[in-house]
Specification:
Elements (H helix, E strand, L loop, with lengths): L2 E6 L14 E2 L2 E2 H11 L5 E6 L2 H9 L4 E3 L11 H11 L6 E4 L9 H13 L5 E8 L8 E3 L5 E3 L15 E12 H7 L8 E5 L10 H15 L4
Parallel strand pairs: 1-4, 1-6, 4-5, 7-11
Antiparallel strand pairs: 2-3, 6-10, 7-10, 8-9
Amino acid sequence: MRVLGIIPARGGSKGVHRKNIKVLDGLPLLAYSIQAAKESKLLSHVVVASEDDEILAIAKSFNCPVFKRSESNSLDQSPITDVVKEVINNINDNYDVILLLQPTAPIRSGNDIDNVIKLFEKDSALNNVISVVQLQDIHPARMYTLNNSNEMIPLAKENETKRRQDLEKVYLRNGSIYAVTTSYFLKTGLLMGSPKKAYVMPESHWLNIDTERDFLLAENLVKMWKDGRL
């Protein structure tokens, strides 16, 4: 099975300036995704897709192939699916599976990537795999909408007063790995189709960096992960 890893890393970022190359515990954020891809034994090829010359140069400094994506696919509102389409339509090779590795979710290993690929190897009918984490206290039973008077409307009224131990398990996409067969993606244009299978990662590996606050938290989480304490 041939698998293409795509690391999308555009230059613009509103929440954190130059986020994809901001230094996190001694490395540019982008480097964590490159390192995980290089650790993988089953990933056939990986490419960093960016419109930004500095990002492309940093990727090359970590010996990672690059793809210069178009400016039109590098805007705030540009769908990630259009970036994937641009890469696979211009790369001179064929792949069975496309695996998206977002730099903003740096806590993943080559073993995680290989475990996802093995799910496709075991099930020829599988189209989608998405990494998730099981949530504990953060649960729909603890969530509300508010009306115009700030009255709390429970999302799951029947579960509102249940103990955590009695609640049904729920899972959240952690942004680490999205994988789809190339045939399914070209047919539907979807990275997340239906049905989709979960690859469950520890909740401690839930880190998605979108804000400066996230980055501050990430410093400690990444140090702990590197030390094997997560």
